[in-house]
Amino acid sequence: MAKKTYDLLFKLLLIGDSGVGKTCVLFRFSDDAFNTTFISTIGIDFKIKTVELQGKKIKLQIWDTAGQERFHTITTSYYRGAMGIMLVYDITNGKSFENISKWLRNIDEHANEDVERMLLGNKCDMDDKRVVPKGKGEQIAREHGIRFFETSAKANINIEKAFLTLAEDILRKTPVKEPNSENVDISSGGGVTGWKSKCC
Amino acid sequence: MSVANSSHRAALLRVLLILLVAQNLARCQLTPAPVQICHSFHCFGEMCYQEAEFANQIAECEPEEHHCELIQLTTVHYMARCSPRCEGEIGTSYSPCLLANNSAPSPGPCSLQCCSGGPLCLVLSLGHLTIQEDKLVLTPPALVRNQAVQGVLCEGDSRQSRLLGLVRYRPERGVQEHALFLYNHRRMAITGDDVSLDQIVPVSRDFTLEEVFPDGELYILGSDVTVQLDTAELNLIFQLPFGSHTRTFLQEVARACPGFNPETPDPEFLWLSRYKCTEQKPSQRGWNSASGTWPECTRKGEDQPSIGGGGSWGGALLEAVQAGRSERCDEELEGADWEMSAAAGSRERDPAGGSQSDDLRPDGKGLLVDQSFRGQDKPDSLLTRQNKSKSEITDMVRSSTITVSDKAHILSMQKFGLRDTMVKSHLVQKEEDYTYIQNFRFFVGTYNVNGQSPKECLQPWLSHGIQAPDIYCVGFQELDLSKEAFFFHDTPKEEEWFKAVSESLHPDAKYAKVKLIRLVGIMLLLYVKQEHAAHISEVEAETVGTGIMGRMGNKGGVAIRFQFHNTSICVVNSHLAAHTEEYERRNQDYKDICSRMQFCQVDPSLPPLTISKHDVILWLGDLNYRIEELDVEKVKKLIEEKAFHTLYAYDQLKTQVAAKAIFEGFTEGELTFQPTYKYDAGSDEWDTSEKCRAPAWCDRILWKGKNITQLSYQSHMALKTSDHKPVSSVFDIGVKVINEELYRKTLEEIVRSLDKMENANIPSVSLSKREFFFQNVKYMQLQVESFTIHNGQVPCQFEFINKPDEESYCKQWLNANPSRGFLLPDSTIKIELELFVNKTTATKLNSGEDKIEDILVLHLDRGKDYFLSVSGNYLPSCFGSPIHTLCYLKEPILDLPLKAIRELTLMPLQTEDDGSQLKNHMDIPKELWMMVDYLYQNAIQQEDLFQQPGLRSEFEHIRDCLDTGTTDTLSASNHSVAEALLLFLESLPEPVICYSAYHNCLECSGNYTASKQVISTLPTFHKNVFDYLMKFLRELLKNSAKNHLDGNILASIFGSLLLRNPAGHQKLEIAEKKKAQEFIRQFLYNSP
């Protein structure tokens, strides 16, 4: 019973156009709740959640970013250090899907090279308003060699699965380490410095 | 695998003398006595330790005798006494083996010494080993002992005991090297020279010592830890005894490994060279070679730490291996007398010399460790009764289903975060949510065997008439009364009785041995039904001696604690002081056991567990409480009448418990069997010896805890081996069993709630406003927008932080005040965003290269980031616009579309007026003309012109008039207009005398012709402005009688505005300033 509370810390990032439901996806995963009122995220928020995978306790620190275009240059600076990035679009919003390739380019430019990526087509409960067929999502994911899920934060479809899958993929790439390994920072707790550490 | 207990069995040391002194030391450290008390006796052989009444008189020492001295006169003759000196009587014919002093007023504890002239020595203590590093300041230079453990070296089928000692060498601060010293040791190793160096393994970069799990063998709780030692040259397998001791050792070794940091130099191990000779002469290995020394080594140098490398180091290791973790003495190891003790040691040896091992000794007591486990090969009648052979038992143990995982990790795991502690404490709090009570049957038995070997089948005691219990707790006392058992903590009886018990366990079930623990004659065995083995964890065993001098193991207790499912259980077997009148001693023994029995916890940061900190305590043993106040015949008569109730009243245990002197909170079942002591061996007859002891219920079983039901409590008259009868009790004990699903659920809830807590502890604030619009921003006109930060429940530090690749957190024209701060929970702070466009930022805003647009990042330390958007519109102004742009602006600047301004502002400055551009221009900016003309009209005689400041409000008015072309409405003081003119010149992005001409001007300063030449090279508009201004200034000077201006004043004011250093606003050198003034002055006094 005397196990460590968590062995690893994974930093995940949610990106995608404004209004696709990134915050709701995170809220569903972290608090298992959903809020219909839309409050645009103006800034960077994060939550933690501890999960157990393959007998390892993993602390996920999930960063939610502002999706509005005017913040893009700033938000890309948060990509660095993320081990996994969830790129979210809205299946009822064609524009958000078209922007996927732009977001992917952003990842290429700003994220760590070995970052684990995942594509989510959110709001899949709203099938009557769907404008992006599932196949298109699958296709672009296939082209880029990344995983794809259609999710619904509202109906709680695939949310947990998506996060766990992403964490598992990261875990698979993480070399087996002794608990005391220093490669993984387990001491920082909720410590977040943004890019502050770089400059001052 | 059952080598597990070889640490108890293996003949490791323990000279009575050493122990006595050590115990004495330890005790006195605990309770310093004003008067020294020492044992004082002469005794021979077993008499010395069997019963206190035969020896061990206590004597009060004379005032000047501060030391206790113990002397071994011959191998069987011992003497103890008070002594005035610590050094012993060196030079006398006998060997003063050990001495100790302990109390004031003598100068510090005088070490004991039976060891050597070397720096190290046998130090002692009961129990296990831990070494204190701080006493390592000893010689030789920086050579220290860290840890040692006794283990079994496995090579193929061979098993040999080795002492493993981790030795650290620290030649200087910050540098250290380690080596693992492996020692052979003589079976009943007592002193350092019973130990010989086998080999040294340097802890180099390729050194690893890791726990391994042999294929096909399942991990058994409490079983040996198998470790593999690997270096480039070596591959050795050791089995180390289970427990915290080994754990510590492995951790120490792991810490000693140099790692792969390339910064640290490779260890060189030069210090090991002095031991090389022993390595080079493997043929001389062994304690018996050349009387245990290697002359060629001993004579190498004074600083050698050892006789033959093995001697004193080995001795230290012996001590290390057995040293107690609870009581330790900080002996100084000086003045040691190695030679003498070595001599004593050699006297002790078999005179025949060459014998390789003690199994050849005539008394046959010293079986080799490995051989002792093959007892069933001997033609022993024991084997015929059994229905299970030893090997079967072992197999069962092997096949039990405990997995390796957890314990193995614990070995290397040290970090326990706060979160972990919280999870654990929550789990304890919510235990009821995920556990249910399930009854398990416990068999508890106690048997004082009076030093006998098993001669009868134990089944009547252990398994007749009962269902197969889930757990067996079987305790023995007086297992072995021989000298060896006492001195050397080694007895073949352990194996014999272990086997006898194992063979007589209930035939309907298979059992796995969990643990065996023994202190001299007190042994406790714990078995579990094989199917429950997986639910036993955290097994620890400890011993407490309360015998001779309050510490020796002839009396005392042993205990095993473990976790069964989720219930913690402690089983104690004790043998308390004898004799009817000694009940107070028994009470004290009980209390000592309770207070001194301490179990290490898995988490080393937690304090050790005591007996009382367990859910269930089962206490068995020969408690030795007697029936008093009745004469023997009366007792026997009452027994015959089965009038046990009458007898209870006289039972000391009952009366002492009733008086709450002992066993508080414990319960004992009703005694429905006749006293179990004392019988003539082999019969059911009461003691017919001379002493004719009165019968007594010596052997008892008590319990404490919830959900315990005693099903039976009885003696077993059928067994006649001993002068005691065995007692047994069967319990149903309600154990907290984990419902895995509920446990997972509870754990999940706890983790969720901790996550929630952690999320709630992320600093978070609310902002009254996030979007800021600054409307109609004008040149040099401050605009302020404010907002409040309202903090949540977590104290937090906030700060506006720089965006990537930017040098400040916002644009130059903006400022947040304050830009950082600290907020208490629920507190509020007002932040003002101040927007101010000055000469540095105006031009780009005019041109549209910059906009009133910015995003500020408000960062909370350890928390979120908030983006604040700033936007607005800037009203272009003539201030900050280039001269040539203004010359093309025929309309007021604010009447023009932004695009036109932008184009004109970005238009390159032409040095040659080639006329290809717009023809439609003015010679000088109309705004300049307006201001100068105003001054010419109104201020030509104004005193202090350019020297008295204007009014801010009037400046804004002037600016607006200029920018909107409404100068006819201009009404402002002369000073304000004058200042506006200066500001206008100052805010020109390119000064009137272009940057490129700056150095030329300074050079020609003083040469008017050359100066005029430089001016003529200026772009037309600039030249026009310069000429115009000079003309105006000359006009002013004409009125100097009225306005008191002179050339110097004007030159100094305008010099720095018209001539600006291209390097920016660095502080100008006075010489440079002077030259600039002089340059202007020329034009003030000369007409062109």
Stretches of chain A where pLDDT falls below 50 for ≥5 residues? Answer: 1-5, 177-200
- Derived structural class of chain B: alpha+beta
Point out poorly predicted stretches of chain B. 1-33, 45-56, 86-146, 188-192, 277-416
The CATH superfamily of the largest domain in chain B appears as Endonuclease/exonuclease/phosphatase
Q: Into which percentage range does the β-strand content of chain B fall?
A: 15-25%
- The best one-word shape of chain B is elongated
Distance between the termini of chain B: 114 Å
Summed up, the helix count of chain B is 33
Mean pLDDT of chain A: 84
| Oligomer kind | heterodimer
Q: Strand fraction band of chain A?
A: 15-25%
Return the domain count of chain A.
Answer: 1
Largest interface: A-B, 37 and 41 residues
Order of secondary-structure elements of chain A: EHEEHEHHEHEHH
Radius of gyration of chain A: 16 Å
Bin the helical content of chain A: 25-40%
Question: How would a crystallographer describe the biggest sheet of chain A?
Answer: 6 strands, mixed
Q: Give the count of helical stretches of chain A.
A: 7
Enzyme class (chain B): hydrolase
Family (chain B): Belongs to the inositol 1,4,5-trisphosphate 5-phosphatase type II family.
Biased composition (Polar residues) (chain B): 282-292
Catalytic activity (chain B): a 1,2-diacyl-sn-glycero-3-phospho-(1D-myo-inositol-4,5-bisphosphate) + H2O = a 1,2-diacyl-sn-glycero-3-phospho-(1D-myo-inositol 4-phosphate) + phosphate
Description of the structure:
The complex is a heterodimer of chains A (200) and B (1088). Chain A is an alpha/beta fold and 200 residues long. Chain A has helices at 22-31, 72-75, 94-98, 100-110, 134-143, 159-173, 196-199; strands spanning 8-16, 43-53, 56-65, 84-90, 116-122, 147-150. In chain A, strands 2-3-1-4-5-6 form a six-stranded mixed sheet, sandwiched between helices. Chain A is globular, with a radius of gyration of 16 Å. Chain B is 29% helix and 24% strand. Chain B is built from 33 helices and 35 strands. Chain B has a seven-stranded antiparallel sheet with strand order 9-8-7-6-12-11-10. A six-stranded mixed sheet of chain B has the order 15-16-14-13-26-25. The longest helix of chain B has 21 residues, at 740-760. The interface between A and B is large, with 37 and 41 residues. β2 of chain A pairs antiparallel with β35 (865-874) of chain B. Chain B: It is an enzyme of class 3 (hydrolase). Chain B: Belongs to the inositol 1,4,5-trisphosphate 5-phosphatase type II family.
